[in-house]
Amino acid sequence: MKKNDGLGDYILLQRMMASHLQTPFHLPPLNHLTCIVTGSTSGIGSETARQLAEAGAHVVMAVRNIKAAHELIQQWQTKWYASGEGFPLNIQAMELDLLSLDSVVRFSNAWNARLTPLHVLINNAGMFAMGGAQNFSEDGYEQHMQVNHLAPALLSLLLLPSLIRASRSRIINVNSVMHYVGFVDPNDMNVISGKRKFSSLRGYSSSKLAQVMFNNVLFKKLPLETGISVVCLSPGAVQTNVTRDLPRVIQDLYSALPYFIFSPQEGCRSSIFSATNPQIPQHYQKLRTNEKSVCTLFVSQNCKPTNCSEEAHNIKTANRVWEKTVELIGLPSDTVERLVDGEDVQCRYGTH
Ligand SMILES: NC(=O)c1ccc[n+]([C@@H]2O[C@H](COP(=O)([O-])OP(=O)(O)OC[C@H]3O[C@@H](n4cnc5c(N)ncnc54)[C@H](OP(=O)(O)O)[C@@H]3O)[C@@H](O)[C@H]2O)c1
After folding, report:
1. 10, 108, 127, 150: residue to mutate for ligand 1 pocket, most atoms within 8 A of CB
2. pLDDT single digits (tens) 242-297
3. Is the residue at 345 inside a domain?
4. 178: domain range?
5. Which residue, of 50, 53, 211, 345, has the fewest CB within 10 Å?
Protein backbone atom coordinates (compact mmCIF):
# COMPACT_ATOMS: atom_id res chain seq x y z
CA MET A 1 0.00 0.00 0.00
CA LYS A 2 1.27 3.49 -0.84
CA LYS A 3 0.64 6.50 1.41
CA ASN A 4 -2.09 7.80 -0.86
CA ASP A 5 -3.98 4.55 -1.26
CA GLY A 6 -7.32 4.85 0.53
CA LEU A 7 -7.55 3.22 3.94
CA GLY A 8 -11.25 2.80 3.11
CA ASP A 9 -10.37 0.63 0.11
CA TYR A 10 -8.09 -1.43 2.29
CA ILE A 11 -10.92 -2.04 4.79
CA LEU A 12 -13.45 -2.86 2.07
CA LEU A 13 -11.14 -5.29 0.29
CA GLN A 14 -9.48 -6.99 3.27
CA ARG A 15 -11.92 -9.89 3.51
CA MET A 16 -11.63 -10.65 -0.19
CA MET A 17 -7.82 -10.51 -0.06
CA ALA A 18 -7.76 -12.88 2.92
CA SER A 19 -10.39 -15.29 1.59
CA HIS A 20 -7.78 -18.05 1.16
CA LEU A 21 -7.07 -18.16 4.92
CA GLN A 22 -8.52 -20.72 7.34
CA THR A 23 -10.20 -19.39 10.49
CA PRO A 24 -8.93 -20.44 12.92
CA PHE A 25 -5.68 -21.84 11.56
CA HIS A 26 -5.13 -25.53 12.05
CA LEU A 27 -2.00 -25.45 14.20
CA PRO A 28 0.46 -28.31 14.75
CA PRO A 29 1.34 -29.20 18.38
CA LEU A 30 3.27 -26.25 19.84
CA ASN A 31 4.31 -27.83 23.16
CA HIS A 32 7.93 -26.87 22.50
CA LEU A 33 7.14 -23.12 22.45
CA THR A 34 7.04 -20.54 25.22
CA CYS A 35 5.24 -17.38 24.11
CA ILE A 36 4.67 -14.03 25.82
CA VAL A 37 1.63 -12.12 24.50
CA THR A 38 1.23 -8.54 25.74
CA GLY A 39 -2.26 -7.05 26.02
CA SER A 40 -3.98 -10.43 25.95
CA THR A 41 -7.05 -9.47 28.02
CA SER A 42 -9.04 -8.45 24.96
CA GLY A 43 -9.33 -8.38 21.19
CA ILE A 44 -6.55 -9.74 19.00
CA GLY A 45 -4.21 -10.51 21.92
CA SER A 46 -6.76 -12.55 23.85
CA GLU A 47 -7.58 -14.65 20.78
CA THR A 48 -3.87 -15.10 20.00
CA ALA A 49 -3.07 -16.25 23.54
CA ARG A 50 -5.97 -18.72 23.64
CA GLN A 51 -5.23 -20.29 20.25
CA LEU A 52 -1.50 -20.68 21.01
CA ALA A 53 -2.32 -22.27 24.40
CA GLU A 54 -4.89 -24.63 22.84
CA ALA A 55 -2.18 -25.81 20.43
CA GLY A 56 -0.05 -26.72 23.46
CA ALA A 57 2.26 -23.70 23.78
CA HIS A 58 3.25 -22.36 27.20
CA VAL A 59 1.62 -18.92 27.08
CA VAL A 60 2.30 -16.00 29.37
CA MET A 61 -0.30 -13.26 29.28
CA ALA A 62 1.59 -10.03 29.99
CA VAL A 63 -1.20 -7.71 31.11
CA ARG A 64 -2.01 -4.70 33.25
CA ASN A 65 -5.27 -6.20 34.51
CA ILE A 66 -4.27 -9.46 36.20
CA LYS A 67 -7.79 -10.11 37.52
CA ALA A 68 -9.25 -9.98 33.98
CA ALA A 69 -6.52 -12.35 32.76
CA HIS A 70 -7.21 -14.85 35.55
CA GLU A 71 -10.94 -14.78 34.74
CA LEU A 72 -10.18 -15.48 31.08
CA ILE A 73 -7.82 -18.32 31.95
CA GLN A 74 -10.52 -19.84 34.16
CA GLN A 75 -13.11 -19.63 31.35
CA TRP A 76 -10.73 -21.11 28.79
CA GLN A 77 -9.72 -23.98 31.10
CA THR A 78 -13.38 -24.79 31.80
CA LYS A 79 -14.25 -24.89 28.09
CA TRP A 80 -11.11 -26.87 27.34
CA TYR A 81 -11.98 -29.59 29.88
CA ALA A 82 -15.61 -29.60 28.69
CA SER A 83 -14.40 -30.33 25.16
CA GLY A 84 -12.87 -33.56 26.47
CA GLU A 85 -9.21 -32.54 26.74
CA GLY A 86 -7.39 -34.30 29.57
CA PHE A 87 -4.58 -31.81 30.21
CA PRO A 88 -5.00 -28.19 31.34
CA LEU A 89 -3.88 -25.34 29.13
CA ASN A 90 -0.34 -24.24 30.02
CA ILE A 91 -1.14 -20.57 30.53
CA GLN A 92 -0.41 -17.98 33.19
CA ALA A 93 -0.61 -14.22 33.71
CA MET A 94 2.11 -11.74 34.70
CA GLU A 95 1.73 -8.04 35.39
CA LEU A 96 2.98 -5.56 32.79
CA ASP A 97 1.82 -1.96 32.45
CA LEU A 98 3.31 -0.36 29.36
CA LEU A 99 2.50 3.11 30.68
CA SER A 100 5.29 2.53 33.22
CA LEU A 101 8.83 1.78 32.08
CA ASP A 102 9.58 0.63 35.65
CA SER A 103 6.92 -2.03 35.14
CA VAL A 104 8.56 -3.15 31.87
CA VAL A 105 11.94 -3.54 33.60
CA ARG A 106 10.37 -5.42 36.55
CA PHE A 107 8.59 -7.78 34.14
CA SER A 108 11.76 -8.42 32.11
CA ASN A 109 13.92 -8.99 35.19
CA ALA A 110 11.38 -11.46 36.58
CA TRP A 111 11.23 -13.29 33.26
CA ASN A 112 14.99 -13.38 32.64
CA ALA A 113 15.54 -14.68 36.19
CA ARG A 114 13.82 -17.91 35.16
CA LEU A 115 16.80 -18.64 32.87
CA THR A 116 14.46 -20.38 30.43
CA PRO A 117 14.28 -19.86 26.66
CA LEU A 118 11.66 -17.54 25.25
CA HIS A 119 10.61 -18.57 21.74
CA VAL A 120 8.05 -15.92 20.84
CA LEU A 121 7.48 -12.40 22.15
CA ILE A 122 4.29 -10.87 20.72
CA ASN A 123 4.20 -7.12 21.28
CA ASN A 124 0.45 -6.91 20.79
CA ALA A 125 -0.79 -4.41 23.42
CA GLY A 126 -1.66 -1.04 22.00
CA MET A 127 -3.83 2.01 22.48
CA PHE A 128 -5.63 4.47 20.21
CA ALA A 129 -7.37 7.16 22.27
CA MET A 130 -9.16 8.50 19.21
CA GLY A 131 -10.22 12.11 19.59
CA GLY A 132 -8.58 12.29 23.02
CA ALA A 133 -6.35 15.09 24.30
CA GLN A 134 -2.57 14.75 24.42
CA ASN A 135 -1.70 12.77 27.55
CA PHE A 136 1.63 11.78 29.04
CA SER A 137 2.78 8.70 30.94
CA GLU A 138 4.28 8.78 34.43
CA ASP A 139 7.64 8.72 32.60
CA GLY A 140 6.74 11.94 30.77
CA TYR A 141 6.19 10.48 27.30
CA GLU A 142 3.18 10.93 25.00
CA GLN A 143 0.99 7.92 25.77
CA HIS A 144 0.58 6.47 22.25
CA MET A 145 4.34 6.72 21.73
CA GLN A 146 5.01 5.01 25.06
CA VAL A 147 2.46 2.18 24.86
CA ASN A 148 2.79 1.43 21.14
CA HIS A 149 6.51 1.98 20.67
CA LEU A 150 8.80 2.90 23.59
CA ALA A 151 7.66 0.29 26.12
CA PRO A 152 7.57 -2.61 23.57
CA ALA A 153 11.04 -1.53 22.37
CA LEU A 154 12.36 -1.69 25.95
CA LEU A 155 10.67 -5.07 26.47
CA SER A 156 12.16 -6.51 23.25
CA LEU A 157 15.68 -5.38 24.15
CA LEU A 158 15.56 -6.46 27.80
CA LEU A 159 14.22 -9.89 26.84
CA LEU A 160 17.03 -10.50 24.32
CA PRO A 161 18.93 -12.80 26.74
CA SER A 162 15.88 -15.10 27.01
CA LEU A 163 15.18 -14.91 23.26
CA ILE A 164 18.83 -15.77 22.51
CA ARG A 165 18.58 -18.73 24.91
CA ALA A 166 16.04 -20.32 22.50
CA SER A 167 17.92 -21.56 19.46
CA ARG A 168 15.26 -19.98 17.21
CA SER A 169 12.98 -17.22 18.38
CA ARG A 170 10.80 -14.40 17.12
CA ILE A 171 9.91 -10.86 18.11
CA ILE A 172 6.47 -10.15 16.62
CA ASN A 173 5.15 -6.57 16.60
CA VAL A 174 1.45 -6.07 16.00
CA ASN A 175 1.71 -2.91 13.94
CA SER A 176 -0.82 -1.29 11.59
CA VAL A 177 -1.33 0.03 8.08
CA MET A 178 -1.70 3.36 9.88
CA HIS A 179 2.10 3.54 9.93
CA TYR A 180 1.81 4.47 6.22
CA VAL A 181 0.30 7.82 7.20
CA GLY A 182 2.66 8.36 10.14
CA PHE A 183 5.51 10.83 10.44
CA VAL A 184 8.18 10.77 13.16
CA ASP A 185 10.40 13.67 14.11
CA PRO A 186 13.15 12.01 16.20
CA ASN A 187 13.79 15.37 17.89
CA ASP A 188 10.15 15.69 18.85
CA MET A 189 8.89 12.16 19.55
CA ASN A 190 6.42 13.54 22.13
CA VAL A 191 5.05 16.19 19.77
CA ILE A 192 5.63 19.02 22.23
CA SER A 193 7.83 21.42 20.23
CA GLY A 194 4.81 23.15 18.70
CA LYS A 195 6.13 22.50 15.16
CA ARG A 196 3.29 20.02 14.58
CA LYS A 197 -0.12 20.08 16.18
CA PHE A 198 -0.94 16.95 18.16
CA SER A 199 -3.95 14.84 17.28
CA SER A 200 -4.65 11.31 18.50
CA LEU A 201 -4.48 10.10 14.88
CA ARG A 202 -1.00 11.63 14.59
CA GLY A 203 -0.01 10.15 17.94
CA TYR A 204 -1.16 6.68 16.91
CA SER A 205 0.24 6.63 13.36
CA SER A 206 3.58 8.15 14.44
CA SER A 207 3.96 5.57 17.20
CA LYS A 208 3.32 2.75 14.72
CA LEU A 209 5.83 4.22 12.22
CA ALA A 210 8.40 4.65 15.02
CA GLN A 211 7.93 0.97 15.87
CA VAL A 212 8.58 -0.11 12.28
CA MET A 213 11.66 2.13 12.00
CA PHE A 214 13.09 0.91 15.32
CA ASN A 215 12.59 -2.71 14.29
CA ASN A 216 14.18 -2.05 10.89
CA VAL A 217 17.35 -1.03 12.75
CA LEU A 218 17.08 -3.96 15.19
CA PHE A 219 16.80 -6.22 12.12
CA LYS A 220 20.17 -4.93 10.90
CA LYS A 221 21.84 -4.94 14.33
CA LEU A 222 20.91 -8.44 15.49
CA PRO A 223 23.44 -10.96 14.19
CA LEU A 224 21.84 -13.88 12.33
CA GLU A 225 23.57 -16.26 14.76
CA THR A 226 21.18 -15.13 17.52
CA GLY A 227 18.47 -17.02 15.59
CA ILE A 228 15.98 -14.19 16.26
CA SER A 229 13.52 -13.15 13.53
CA VAL A 230 12.02 -9.67 13.89
CA VAL A 231 8.58 -9.26 12.33
CA CYS A 232 6.07 -6.40 12.09
CA LEU A 233 2.53 -7.09 10.95
CA SER A 234 -0.85 -5.65 10.15
CA PRO A 235 -3.87 -7.44 11.67
CA GLY A 236 -6.34 -5.65 9.37
CA ALA A 237 -9.30 -3.60 10.57
CA VAL A 238 -10.64 -5.64 13.48
CA GLN A 239 -13.69 -5.27 15.71
CA THR A 240 -12.11 -5.03 19.18
CA ASN A 241 -12.04 -2.73 22.19
CA VAL A 242 -9.67 -0.49 20.25
CA THR A 243 -12.83 1.19 18.93
CA ARG A 244 -14.07 1.98 22.44
CA ASP A 245 -12.70 5.54 22.32
CA LEU A 246 -13.77 6.17 18.75
CA PRO A 247 -16.54 8.70 18.18
CA ARG A 248 -19.98 7.05 18.22
CA VAL A 249 -20.36 7.56 14.46
CA ILE A 250 -17.21 5.55 13.66
CA GLN A 251 -18.14 2.84 16.18
CA ASP A 252 -21.51 2.61 14.40
CA LEU A 253 -19.71 2.39 11.05
CA TYR A 254 -17.59 -0.51 12.36
CA SER A 255 -20.72 -2.29 13.65
CA ALA A 256 -22.59 -1.59 10.41
CA LEU A 257 -19.86 -3.18 8.35
CA PRO A 258 -19.61 -6.60 9.96
CA TYR A 259 -18.95 -8.20 6.61
CA PHE A 260 -15.89 -6.03 5.98
CA ILE A 261 -14.40 -5.75 9.45
CA PHE A 262 -12.50 -8.78 10.75
CA SER A 263 -13.57 -10.55 13.92
CA PRO A 264 -10.78 -10.99 16.52
CA GLN A 265 -10.46 -14.64 15.30
CA GLU A 266 -9.72 -13.30 11.83
CA GLY A 267 -7.64 -10.39 13.09
CA CYS A 268 -5.26 -12.66 15.01
CA ARG A 269 -4.34 -14.73 11.94
CA SER A 270 -1.35 -12.60 10.95
CA SER A 271 -0.05 -12.78 14.56
CA ILE A 272 -0.48 -16.56 14.78
CA PHE A 273 1.01 -16.99 11.30
CA SER A 274 4.04 -14.81 12.15
CA ALA A 275 4.54 -16.62 15.46
CA THR A 276 4.28 -20.16 14.16
CA ASN A 277 4.74 -20.48 10.40
CA PRO A 278 7.88 -22.59 9.76
CA GLN A 279 8.80 -20.52 6.67
CA ILE A 280 9.25 -17.30 8.65
CA PRO A 281 12.90 -17.88 9.76
CA GLN A 282 13.97 -18.82 6.20
CA HIS A 283 12.18 -15.85 4.75
CA TYR A 284 13.72 -13.58 7.38
CA GLN A 285 17.19 -15.00 6.81
CA LYS A 286 16.92 -14.39 3.06
CA LEU A 287 15.90 -10.80 3.67
CA ARG A 288 18.63 -10.29 6.27
CA THR A 289 21.42 -11.61 4.06
CA ASN A 290 20.36 -9.30 1.21
CA GLU A 291 22.54 -6.21 1.65
CA LYS A 292 19.92 -4.08 -0.07
CA SER A 293 17.18 -4.88 2.49
CA VAL A 294 16.31 -1.87 4.57
CA CYS A 295 13.13 -3.11 6.23
CA THR A 296 12.46 -6.10 8.40
CA LEU A 297 9.81 -8.65 7.47
CA PHE A 298 6.35 -7.05 7.38
CA VAL A 299 3.40 -9.48 7.24
CA SER A 300 0.08 -8.24 5.85
CA GLN A 301 -3.39 -9.02 7.15
CA ASN A 302 -3.53 -11.75 4.45
CA CYS A 303 -0.44 -13.38 5.97
CA LYS A 304 1.79 -12.43 3.04
CA PRO A 305 5.10 -10.57 3.20
CA THR A 306 4.51 -6.98 2.16
CA ASN A 307 6.38 -3.68 2.01
CA CYS A 308 6.51 -1.27 4.88
CA SER A 309 5.83 2.37 4.02
CA GLU A 310 8.11 4.54 1.91
CA GLU A 311 8.93 6.70 4.96
CA ALA A 312 9.92 3.57 6.92
CA HIS A 313 12.64 3.01 4.28
CA ASN A 314 14.34 6.26 5.32
CA ILE A 315 17.51 4.84 6.88
CA LYS A 316 18.75 8.15 8.24
CA THR A 317 15.51 8.86 10.12
CA ALA A 318 15.25 5.22 11.26
CA ASN A 319 18.73 5.43 12.78
CA ARG A 320 17.80 8.67 14.56
CA VAL A 321 14.59 7.05 15.82
CA TRP A 322 16.67 4.14 17.13
CA GLU A 323 19.14 6.43 18.92
CA LYS A 324 16.40 8.59 20.41
CA THR A 325 14.38 5.56 21.50
CA VAL A 326 17.32 3.94 23.26
CA GLU A 327 18.01 7.23 25.02
CA LEU A 328 14.36 7.71 26.08
CA ILE A 329 14.04 4.16 27.44
CA GLY A 330 17.20 4.64 29.49
CA LEU A 331 19.53 2.09 27.90
CA PRO A 332 23.15 2.47 26.73
CA SER A 333 23.63 2.96 22.97
CA ASP A 334 25.50 -0.37 22.63
CA THR A 335 22.76 -2.39 24.39
CA VAL A 336 22.25 -4.93 21.60
CA GLU A 337 25.97 -5.60 21.13
CA ARG A 338 26.47 -6.07 24.89
CA LEU A 339 23.47 -8.33 25.37
CA VAL A 340 24.45 -10.44 22.35
CA ASP A 341 27.94 -10.80 23.94
CA GLY A 342 26.29 -12.07 27.13
CA GLU A 343 27.05 -8.90 29.15
CA ASP A 344 24.59 -7.13 31.48
CA VAL A 345 23.17 -3.69 30.76
CA GLN A 346 21.81 -1.21 33.27
CA CYS A 347 18.53 0.56 32.54
CA ARG A 348 17.71 3.95 34.07
CA TYR A 349 14.23 2.61 34.88
CA GLY A 350 13.19 -0.22 37.17
CA THR A 351 14.82 0.98 40.36
CA HIS A 352 11.52 1.86 42.08
N1 LIG B 1 -8.40 -3.43 15.93
C2 LIG B 1 -7.87 -2.93 14.83
O3 LIG B 1 -8.57 -2.59 13.85
C4 LIG B 1 -6.37 -2.79 14.73
C5 LIG B 1 -5.83 -2.37 13.50
C6 LIG B 1 -4.44 -2.25 13.39
C7 LIG B 1 -3.64 -2.53 14.49
N8 LIG B 1 -4.20 -2.91 15.67
C9 LIG B 1 -3.29 -3.19 16.79
O10 LIG B 1 -3.60 -4.44 17.34
C11 LIG B 1 -3.14 -4.48 18.70
C12 LIG B 1 -4.19 -5.09 19.59
O13 LIG B 1 -5.30 -4.19 19.64
P14 LIG B 1 -6.82 -4.65 19.65
O15 LIG B 1 -7.43 -4.16 18.41
O16 LIG B 1 -6.94 -6.09 20.02
O17 LIG B 1 -7.38 -3.70 20.81
P18 LIG B 1 -7.94 -3.98 22.29
O19 LIG B 1 -9.06 -4.94 22.25
O20 LIG B 1 -8.19 -2.64 22.85
O21 LIG B 1 -6.71 -4.66 23.01
C22 LIG B 1 -5.60 -3.91 23.42
C23 LIG B 1 -4.89 -4.64 24.53
O24 LIG B 1 -3.76 -3.83 24.90
C25 LIG B 1 -3.80 -3.67 26.31
N26 LIG B 1 -3.20 -2.43 26.76
C27 LIG B 1 -3.56 -1.17 26.48
N28 LIG B 1 -2.79 -0.31 27.17
C29 LIG B 1 -1.93 -1.06 27.91
C30 LIG B 1 -0.92 -0.77 28.84
N31 LIG B 1 -0.64 0.49 29.21
N32 LIG B 1 -0.22 -1.79 29.40
C33 LIG B 1 -0.51 -3.07 29.09
N34 LIG B 1 -1.49 -3.41 28.24
C35 LIG B 1 -2.18 -2.42 27.66
C36 LIG B 1 -5.28 -3.68 26.67
O37 LIG B 1 -5.41 -3.97 28.05
P38 LIG B 1 -6.74 -3.55 28.87
O39 LIG B 1 -7.75 -4.63 28.54
O40 LIG B 1 -6.27 -3.59 30.30
O41 LIG B 1 -7.16 -2.20 28.38
C42 LIG B 1 -5.77 -4.80 25.78
O43 LIG B 1 -5.52 -6.06 26.36
C44 LIG B 1 -2.76 -3.04 19.05
O45 LIG B 1 -1.36 -2.89 18.98
C46 LIG B 1 -3.43 -2.23 17.95
O47 LIG B 1 -2.77 -1.00 17.70
C48 LIG B 1 -5.55 -3.05 15.81
Report:
1. 127
2. 766 666 666 666 676 677 889 999 999 999 999 999 999 999 999 999 999 999 99
3. no
4. 7-340
5. 345
